[in-house]
Write a structure and sequence with these properties.
Layout lengths: L2 H17 L14 E11 L2 E2 L3 E7 L5 H5 L9 E9 L2 E8 L5 E9 L2 E8 L3 E12 L7
Antiparallel strand pairs: 1-2, 1-3, 1-8, 4-5, 5-6, 6-7, 7-8
Length: about 140
């Protein structure tokens, strides 16, 4: 195959790849498995409160929606809708029984750190979250 034929073949393959819909699986999400420290802060009158710290072990290939988007506003039971996922972010809408509509997001600035928040319609930001990966998991009890 000549060099020009090879270039045309590669460009055609790249163009067909771009045109196809992208299916994101758990393995392509930009977060490392391991032990994560999650700090959730409820925002009252524009000021974040003391963090509620949670630790959990994230397995390789874990579903990002159940791992990194499991927190919801304190106002009550909410249902996630309009979920949008990219390799380094999650965004969704929340429909809550005891609160107005809300939106939420999680954004990774590296494979070991993320920030996110929940914004309630008419009230602004009500929850902030930050996650840091600390180490590999050492046992199922982590």
């Amino acid at each position: 195959m000549s060099p020009s034929s090879l270039v045309v073949t590669v460009l055609c393959a790249a163009a067909s790849t771009v045109a196809l819909p992208v299916h994101a699986d758990a393995g392509d999400f930009g977060a490392m498995p391991g032990l994560w420290k999650i700090q959730v802060r409820h925002v009252i009158h524009g000021k974040p409160g003391a963090p509620e710290v949670q630790w959990h072990c994230v397995d390789e290939g874990a579903d990002p929606w159940t791992t990194f988007a499991a927190w919801t506003p304190a106002e009550g039971k909410c249902t996630a809708t309009d979920q949008q996922r990219r390799t380094t972010s999650l965004a969704w809408k929340l429909t809550c029984k005891a609160a107005p509509a809300a939106s939420a997001h999680v954004d990774f600035d590296s494979a070991k750190h993320y920030t996110g928040s929940v914004t309630l319609e008419g009230r602004g930001e009500i929850t902030k979250v930050e996650g840091d990966r600390y180490a590999a998991c050492t046992s199922p009890e982590d």
